[in-house]
Amino acid sequence: MTRTLYVMRHAKSSWSTGHADHQRPLNGRGRREAPLAGAYLATRAPIDQVLSSTSTRTRETWAAAEEGGAEANEVNFYQQMYNGRAEDHLELLRELPSETQSALILAHFPGVLEIVRGLAVRDDHPGWPSLDENFPTSAIAVLEFDGEWESLGPGDAKLIDYVIPRDN
């Protein structure tokens, strides 16, 4: 069975609010671009499971993505995804039920980039040069793999899309 993994970095957040890092909200650009990410996700099948960091900016990103049309059957927030590394994300993915067809990781840099680089085989996909440079806010990498979540590991996935929603 082919499964889909979306990996998304939260939208742009504000550094000027005086809030602690975990509580930083989205800034104006983030509030404009997160619905664009949602519009992109809406062109795909509804997501079975969203695995998100507990931070304010990831929560606000998902809410704005839903306003843009993104849909998910279930959304869960995990403290270990806040400043989580690839291995933290992979641990949660491996716990997904076998009936889960698609999942979205909504988290932070550098963990989002690490999980994509760790799971996806490097090929000639045009998104790789951009991924070599950065994984900017609101960016979404789409990976596909065959097999079960519980056995997902390095090199098991293929990058099939990479988008950076911007309002220009």
From TrEMBL:
UniProt-recorded name of the protein: Histidine phosphatase family protein
Signal peptide segment: none
PANTHER family from the UniProt entry: OS09G0287300 PROTEIN (PTHR47623)
InterPro entries membership: His_Pase_superF_clade-1, His_PPase_superfam
